[in-house]
């Protein structure tokens, strides 16, 4: 969905294309807990703007990772949920999350060295 100009070089290239972006992995984590409405996702991801949340959800939907269901009621109700593909992607990301938890103290301690402009 990122506007690639050619075929993927490998499986990791394809996966990173789908999860690239600051918020997509966190959206996948939130949706792993069950279907969520837009407002619930905004509350669970403090710091994400409405514009970016809409954009990231649309990209995940276009990639077949997230399903958007619109309920015919007043007021309108929309829920987002992981598809089977999204659930399998979350399973693939679980070891990465475990690695992050295991090395979180080190990563926090060296954050300023790795990201000098963020300080």
Describe this structure in words.
The protein has helices at residues 11-19, 24-31, 38-44, 50-62, 84-102, 104-109, 111-114, and strands at 36-37, 66-71, 77-82. With 119 residues, it is mostly helical. Strands 1-3-2 form a three-stranded antiparallel sheet. The longest helix has 19 residues, at 84-102. The two termini are 31 Å apart. The mean pLDDT is 91.
Which descriptors apply to this entry?
mainly alpha, 3 strands, 55% helix
Oligomer: single chain
Question: How many individual β-strands?
Answer: 3
Secondary structure: helix percent: 55-70%
Number of helical regions: 7
Share of residues in strands:
5-15%
N-to-C CA distance: 31 Å
Query: Strand order within the widest sheet?
Result: 1-3-2
Query: Shape, please?
Result: globular
Question: Element order, helices and strands?
Answer: HHEHHEEHHH
Which structural class do you get from the secondary structure elements?
A: mainly alpha
Quote the average pLDDT: 91
Radius of gyration based on Cα positions: 16 Å
């Amino acid at each position: 969905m990122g506007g690639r100009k050619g075929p993927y070089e490998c499986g990791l290239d394809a996966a990173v294309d789908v999860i690239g972006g600051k918020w997509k992995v966190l959206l996948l984590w939130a949706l792993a807990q069950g279907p969520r409405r837009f407002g619930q996702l905004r509350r669970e991801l403090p710091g994400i703007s409405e514009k970016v949340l809409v954009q990231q959800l649309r990209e995940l939907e276009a990639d077949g990772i997230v399903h958007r269901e619109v309920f015919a009621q007043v007021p309108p109700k929309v829920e987002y949920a992981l598809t089977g593909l999204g659930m399998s992607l979350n399973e693939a990301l679980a070891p990465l999350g475990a690695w992050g938890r295991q090395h979180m103290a080190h990563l926090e301690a060296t954050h300023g060295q790795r990201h000098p402009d963020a300080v």
